[in-house]
Amino acid sequence: MAPMMHIMVVDDEEAICVALSAWLTKEGYNVETAASGPAALARMEEKHNDLYLVDFKMPGMDGLQLLAEIKMRQPDATVIMITAHGSIQSAVEAMKRGAVDYLCKPFDPEELSLLMERVAAAKTLQRTATDADGQWGAAQQPAWGGIVGQSEALRIVLDEIEEVAPTTAPVLITGETGTGKDLLALAIHMRSEQAGGPFMAINCGAQSETLLESELFGHERGAFTGAVKARRGRLEMANGGTLFLDEIGEISPKMQITLLRVLEEKKFCRLGGNQPVDTHFRLVSATHRDLRQLLREGQFREDFFYRINVLTIHIPPLRERLEDVPVLADFFLHRYAAETGKPVEGLTPRAVEILMNYNWPGNVRELRNVIERVVVIARGRMIGAEELAFLQPHADTCGPEPTTLREVERHHLLNALENSDWNITRAAKLLDIDRVTLSRKMKRLNLKRP
Ligand SMILES: Nc1ncnc2c1ncn2[C@@H]1O[C@H](COP(=O)(O)OP(=O)(O)OP(=O)(O)O)[C@@H](O)[C@H]1O
Ligand SMILES: [Mg+2]
Asked: N- or C-end of the chain: fewer Cβ atoms within 10 A?
């Protein structure tokens, strides 16, 4: 459940403040208003909002000046400019200076609510990122906000991201469902030169082809029944930023041809229009499907494939990077404990062992759901093996060999530690190794005194 988004509307026209505030409140957001730039800044001393809707033309401090002041005080603030029709040029200027989008007066309620949904979604991602930083601090990779893990496999993926992000080449992210492809796409955007521009995501598999087309291309007024106003599409809104085409394996060959043309010409027409619109964006796509297989089956076009797949990043399934399981589990556990107010503090070593012995067909998403569930039912401070009993090891999925050397070692060390009441010196003696070696192994296998 995403926390409520807090919005401030800054406009010298009272009618606009009242109208926007009423509309957004009705949509379920927390809204406050300010009649001028200085008033907004004064209020910011007390409270930061997630989103600022700022009018361009205000007497005294204008919208652009206020935008700069807001960004200085609250760099993670999202700012959207409100502009009258015909002043698109200044809107473009604002986007260059860090505004994420603009709204034209008079407002189109549909456009407004779509925009709000998008901002709220981006905020949730941003929040996950901040949470992760807070949680792990220097122990993890603070620069990698939101992406938690300690495996070598993930390290390699993050190194690859570091390498590809600053280029402008299209990136294709592959990996099973729930492995974190969305997070990686955002990480690429955040580390790219377009980081200050919009991150525009669209799920190609979630809607009909007609709807997808209109979402991407936007339309002119009267393009089809019900198109009472012109609307910008994602291709246009991604200008200056990143376009993230999620589930790209789902789009039809016909749509692939259309998109290929846009990618090559960097311009397109809105539906029902014949005025070409320029757009420049970095393309990131993702899929859980095997595109080469689709190529062979003739469902995917070769030219399109090579166009989107200049650089590839593959994120391995969780079962191939089990070292990430304990830290991810801990991360989600603290998050849900905080969210639900439950005094849950951690997992017993036996519980961790169960998690490590499971195959995770649904990957990180499944782990997240499992932890959410056990936090809800937890009665003590520690989550034990009993609470995770529903996780059958390797539940009839064909995973890797069930017992790796690592698992055997972990199990053996755990036994020794439990038999010696977690006294390292005694456990080391039992195992016939020195204390330093044992401590190092414990760290590597994430064995902690309960
Ligand atoms: N390394 C990670 N650290 C923290 N959270 C993660 C990590 N990987 C994935 N998640 C979380 O797991 C969930 C699923 O991730 P995400 O939506 O990015 O997966 P996906 O690969 O896009 O899946 P799908 O193919 O189903 O779209 C999200 O809640 C995401 O925040
Ligand atoms: Mg996804």
From this structure: N
Q: pTM here?
A: 0.63
The helix (run of H) or strand (run of E) holding residue 102 is strand 101-105
* Assigned domain for 283 exists: yes
Residue 138 has pLDDT above 60, yes or no: no
**Is the pLDDT reported for residue 443 higher than 60?**
yes
Q: Whose CA is nearest to atom 12 of ligand 1?
A: 365
Residue partners of 54: CB distance under 8 A and separation at least 6 = 10, 11, 40, 63, 66, 67, 70, 79, 80, 81, 82, 99
Q: Which CA distances in Å does 431 have to 231, 327, 412, 445?
A: 69, 26, 9, 16
The number of folded domains in the chain is 3
Burial of 208: CB neighbours in 10 Å, binned 0-12, 13-18, 19+: exposed
Burial bucket for residue 376 (CB in 10 Å: 0-12, 13-18, 19+): exposed
Q: Is 155 in the pocket of ligand 1 (CB under 6 A)?
A: no
Contact 102, 78 (CB under 8 A): no
**Residue 69, domain CATH:** 3.40.50.2300
What pLDDT band is residue 253 in, cutting at 50, 70 and 90?
very high
The pLDDT tens digits of the residues spanning 197-224 come to 888 989 998 888 888 999 999 999 888 8
Domain that holds residue 103: 6-108
Ligand 2 center to 180 CA (angstroms):
7
d(CA 430, CA 412): 11
**Does 115 map to a domain?**
no
288 plus 180 within the same structural domain: yes
**Residue 87 shares a structural domain with residue 38:** yes
Cβ–ligand 1 distance for 318 under 6 Å, the answer no
Torsion angle in degrees (nearest 10) through CA of 181, 196, 229, 248 = -20
- State residue 398's pLDDT score: 44
Whether residue 151 is contained in a domain is answered as yes
Could you tell me if the CB of 319 is within 6 A of ligand 1? no
